[in-house]
Amino acid sequence: MTDQKDTPAFIEVRSLSKHFGDFVAVDSVNLQINKGELFSILGGSGCGKTTLLRMLAGFEVPTSGQIFLDGVDVTNQPPYERPVNMMFQSYAIFPHMSVEKNIAYGLQKDRLPKSEIDERVQDMLRLVQMESFASRKPGQLSGGQRQRVALARALVKNPKVLLLDEPLAALDKKLREHTQFELMNIQDKLGITFIVVTHDQEEAMILSTRIAVMENGRFEQIGRPKEVYEFPKNRFVADFIGTINMFEGVLQGVRNGKVIVASDECGSSLNVICDDPPTPGSDVCVAVRPEKIYISQNRPDNSEDTCLPGIIEDLGYFGNISLYRIRLETGKIVQVSAQNRQRTIDRTLEWDDEIFISWRPRSAVLLTK
Predict the structure, then answer these.
(1) Percentage of the residues of the chain whose pLDDT score is greater than 70
(2) What's the pLDDT score for residue 2?
(3) CA nearest neighbour of 15 among 26, 23, 6
(4) Which domains, from first to last, does the chain contain?
(5) 8 A C-beta contact, residue 366 and residue 284
(6) What is the mean pLDDT of residues 86-99?
(7) 189, 150, 187: which is closest to 170 by C-alpha?
């Protein structure tokens, strides 16, 4: 994707709110999306993400605020006047129509010439690799094939923006993983701006150029997937995205460029590298991802690392990784994941083994709220 830092936002949301009586579904959010982005709005049930998507589509009228699309204020435009199309979670394809007729339906309603309709439908069939299924009815298709038909029908009208509401939720795990890459390839070929609403963190991380994490009608953090995962802004984002260990503590001070946090949960001091630490005495939280933690039967030599003794309370084998639940001397449970790089049926570590866990100062994140 080309660098669009200096170009105006293709989609801009300004102080957008939606109230249902006393309930605030979307609370004065601001958002800028560049042309050609695959942007995800990620959040749990009831956070406001689908309501926001429906306002972008024109199906819900905002209580306040504005929506701009390609420089045009579309806040009060009805859905049929917006250069936007929406792909619903249920796919909503017509069961009595063939694949070909489902895709052509919107173009026929627009009364386009038959030759143009046929050409565009065939282009879409090729794009979603459904040429050989053109005459089939939806009931004769798999879930993944129905998803492709719904996508083709949404794209055939050449919208400037495609809105996707939980587009892969109905697919099984393997098909969902495969379809994620198909969706990315289609979006890249067409260059259309995609906005995906999902509760699936893994899906958002794989698909997106950027993610907005939403909670209680507001955005908690907006950024690239790696930024949101590695540098969460607060405890909610850290806890919502992936798995993380959190250690409550009090900031003691800064020594040799490292923040020192006293944590009763660990029974030790923790070292963290933080560019802008709060004042000494502040209540803080040290967060560490399971894959950032080393596990060994011998105490590591590096004195700069945080090192804690513990006992393996539980372990799980997942093929590519092994997951360990470590009980520290304080009783705190810490999750550690380790890559299984060697092909063997023997375990190196077992239940009740006494071990050490350690992590580097840069691997931890200091959170204040």
Answers:
(1) 97
(2) 42
(3) 26
(4) 11-239 (3.40.50.300), 244-367 (2.40.50.140)
(5) yes
(6) 85
(7) 150
